[in-house]
Amino acid sequence: MARAGLTAERVTIAAAELADEVGLDQVTMSQVARRLGVKDASLYSHVRSLEELRGRIALLAADEKTIRIAEATAGRAGKDALIAFANAWREYAHRYPGRYTATQSQVRIDPELVARAPGPRRAVELTYGMLRGYGLAEPDLTDAVRLLRSTFHGFVALEAAGGFAHERSPQQSWPRALEALHALLERWPSSGEGDSA
After folding, report:
1. Is 62-186 a CATH 1.10.357.10 domain?
2. What does the record give as the DNA-binding region (predicted)?
């Protein structure tokens, strides 16, 4: 019988907090159970496996990060929206490193859980909506989304790993990188796809 008060959501939050403290790869079902003051077996009434738990952390984080980005970009367009979007992304990665890692991992997530989680879908909508402000359409939209994700994730991943050893701080480089992205998005090269011959 499941312990009273214990839910999949409560287990996920405890695991997410632990991931932020020790790293996603270090989270185990036993550690989560200890954190909640229950026996390991009690968790399996709410989550089937460690892989499912990591998937739930990823969906929780996607929801949280998307909410922060939506709040930051509300009423903004163009460069202002890009900077607000990027800063919200980076701040989330800094504040919640374990959860952020979960959003970038290749964990297999139950399609039913994904279908009920608004975060991933809303993240795509926000990103594409922000980029439409630059006058982009497909296939350029998809290419630009991939560029932004690669840039934002690459920057925060290198920061987290101590990969920027130069005397110029990442805090100085970050706004310059965003300025460069803005300039590129304003002058996005045509793919030529769909143009008449």
Report:
1. yes
2. 28-47
